[in-house]
Amino acid sequence: MAxxxxxxxxxxxxQELLAFNVTQCGYRAIQAYDAASAMSHxxxxxxxLILLDWMLPGTSGVELARRLRAEQRTRxxxxxxxxxxxxxxxxxxxxxxxxxxxxxxxxxxxxxxxxIRAVLRRRMPQMSDETVSAGGLELSPTTHRVNAKxxxxxxxxxxxxLLHFFMTHAERVYSRSQLLDQVWGDHVFVEERTVDVHxxxxxxxxxPSGCDGLVQTVRGxxxxxxxx
Length: 228
Ligand code: CA
Prior knowledge:
It contains eight helices and twelve strands. By secondary structure, it is of the alpha/beta class. The model has no long low-confidence stretch (mean pLDDT 89).
């Protein structure tokens, strides 16, 4: 479940450097050289994070960040601003426009990757590759394995994503449509009852280890993962 990172940068050398490092870290890089092409990528599919250059030809990075924050659909996409400016006032302006973090050029790839990981971990814990444990389950995103009280589970890809989302968002109730957005992705036209089908499969897989009760139905609202 590699995160999709949209790179918005007009300088080809920096764009290539970003794409190289992002790909090396196991993410998928989507490249855009200006705000207009960034918007056209975003309208097709929401990226998991945007690395956004401040100085772009035409619409600036700050302006693009403001537009994304003003729209319901794009409001929550994590944004890291890239800029050559070091001025403190500009930094504040960048963060006020809605950026989650800020990095000044020239940057070290290591630092940039650390920032990307930190923002993803904070904003989308299910996109992190860290092992999560809860209620006797241990899920490893890197090996795609789930250990349930000592037994390895055999989960389909959707059940795996669903469980990963639940484990990183425990104790909260999610409606079927929220789960579709979060686990299946937006712009995906699947019926809400599809969620029920995959919940059933997930519970069946958890049943032998006695962990199926972790996935709870909240009548009239949706589902909740609870280890308490
Ligand atoms: Ca630039």
